[in-house]
Amino acid sequence: MNIKKLGLLAALWAASALAQDSRPIRITVDTTDAPRKILRSTMSIPVRPGPLTLVFPQWIPGEHGPTGPIDNFAGLVFVANGQTLAWRRDDINMFAFHLTVPAGVETLEAKAEFLATASPTGFSAGASTSANLCLVSWNELLLYPANTSAAQVTFEPSVKVPDGWQLGTALARESTEGNVTHFSTVPLDMLVDSPVLTGLYFREIALAPEITPKHYLDMAGDGPEDLKLTNDQINAFSNLIRETGSLYRSRHYNSYHFLLTLSDSVAHFGLEHHQSSDDRVEARNFLDEDSSMLEGDLLPHEFTHSWNGKYRRPAGLATPNYQQPMIGNLLWVYEGLTQYLGDVLATRSGIWTPEQYRAYLAYSAAELDHRPGRTWRDLQDTATSAQILYDTSEQWDNWRRSVDYYQEGELIWLDVDTTIRKLSNNKKSLNDFCVRFLGLGGNTPPEVLPYTFEDIVTNLNAIQPNDWAAFLTERLTTKSPHAPLDGITNGGYHIEYSSEPNEFIRASENHDRGVDAWYSLGIQVSDNSISDVLVGSPAFNAGLGPSMKIVAVNGRAASDELLHTAIRDAKGNSQPIELIVSNAGYFKVVKIDYHGGELYPHLVRDDRAPDRLESILKPMTNHPETKAAE
To answer: Around 463, how many Cα atoms within 13 Å sit in the side-chain half-sphere?
Structure first.
């Protein structure tokens, strides 16, 4: 996208907004019915007489698509001077509402509800409430004038919560009256970027208290036991604050709040914001070692987005409002670089051990190396088509490909990092790029600096001269059947397969009650149901497909242990593994001619090359043994 044209368009829209009215819109969100999955919104909108079009946010930042949940926006009523006004939805744009403001009217009162009835899947439009907590995403409860800039429309926000509930948010608090908290006036883009987490069982922990600006871990759980962190866990999150200071040498926020929801009733994901993050995990996340490890990269990933994604943002994603479509062609930077840095930061901070990081990297890289869809679809296309990929099924995902720019982007940036270290004789690294590119300008309040592919290349060349344009283009456009593993090789390792599951696969099998036979039979199984089949694998060639249910293994009622045993026992003999499977009420016997035993990926040290990965994972700052507040 042309940056000059983008700036001109934003300026014109800003002028339009100011011409309409410069007074803020007042909005109050009532969460007292959140346990019944109903949120209520009241707005006072400054207007002038005549035709008016208001819009509901459609393209949601961080979700990279037109995911605004207009289907659950209900109960819309407009009132002016005590008179209810007629409104009409646009015939084509379902997110636009037309009405006429009567003469003499300066303020329009609007009421609406958001029905929080979605299933616990997806992102912010997914389930966000339970009996004891609620995550308020402002974009689900507001309207704003069409053809205006989100940076120019201002709001005076307030939230009403049930008795006894507390809240956390990056919004600045002005006052509290009973159960209603009033916040300072903010532009629309910062309001949408500042969700509110509220709950009965709530805890706020100050992280790395010696550092300014201040950082907080705000948690709401299904029960009080979910909020019990150990001192080691709290110290690791404090170390994350310290490590980001050393890595980026800048902070682009006034304060930062991790809004962490611990619940089995909400969708589980992470969504970045400039001064906070919407992080959602299972209720027992901190009480279960496997869950805690599997989600260990969540907070570092979303925190990194404050620099890469919110402050520095691809030009195609730096849209002036929530109605203009986004262009995701640089998501391999926005998400891929963030995936890499977040995982490295998780290790430098002590959230993960180096051994856990290597297990994760082997798990992720091997999965990408077994994706036959890469022979027809390059990585760049997964970024370009991001808006249609987030809701795809896991079934046949290895052939379709999905949002691969996260994990494969991580491999590319590991390759960049190790290449810089190799070419510079370890005098430079991606750390230097992060200071130059993501830390640009030093400490600043929240703002957006767009970038292009050319900016990435220019800044890499400033750190270490190389043909980075060709380097990156080759990895983005190749249709090789294999993943780009040069970063692992340059890091001093390679992938080997053995019969012992690595730590991440073991934890995943325990957590999901399943069997990961991806590198042997070519299937993934959960609760005896096949979730996916690897195209070209023994299971594929035997006729198995996703959603089939394994009823029996070698003549016995199916179980995870029996499937493991059958794979192990088939090694060294000629008898096929026999499964009875059901498919939509029909049964068949399937014989899989496989005799290689169980196989799982591991990262193995190559002594012929320097251990650059060890250097990458070393903490950049000293970690004081602080006593965390109970």
So the answer is: 26
Kindly report, residue by residue over 532-569, the tens digit of the pLDDT.
Answer: 999 999 999 999 999 999 999 999 999 999 999 999 99
CB 141 within 8 A of CB 195: no
Instruction: Give me the helices (H) in 305-435, please.
Output: 331-334, 336-349, 354-369, 379-384, 397-400, 407-423, 430-433
pTM value is 0.94
Distance CA 135, CA 495 (A): 41
Alpha helix ranges (H) inside 229-387: 231-248, 289-294, 298-304, 331-334, 336-349, 354-369, 379-384
DSSP structure class, residue 51: E
The answer to whether residues 433 and 459 touch, using CB atoms and an 8 Å cutoff, is yes
C-alpha span between 65 and 48 (Å, rounded): 32
Q: What are phi and psi for residue 36, nearest 5 degrees? A: -95, 10
Q: Read out DSSP for 161-210?
A: --TT-EEEESSPEEEEETTEEEE--EEHHHHHT--EEEESSEEEEEESTT
Model pLDDT for residues 101-116, shown as the tens digit of each residue: 999 999 999 999 999 9
Please provide the distance, in angstroms rounded to a whole number, between the alpha carbons at the two ends of the chain: 50
- β-pairing, 215-221 vs 256-262, is parallel
Q: Is pLDDT above 70 for 154?
A: yes
Does residue 40 carry a pLDDT above 90?
yes
Average pLDDT, the chain: 95
Three-state secondary structure readout of 101-166:
ECCCCCEEEEEEEEECCCCCCCCCCCCCECCCEEEECHHHCCCEECCCCCCCCEEEEEEECCCCCE
**Residue 21's pLDDT is what?**
63
Instruction: Please say if the pLDDT value at position 525 is more than 90.
Output: yes
Q: What is the pLDDT of residue 512?
A: 87
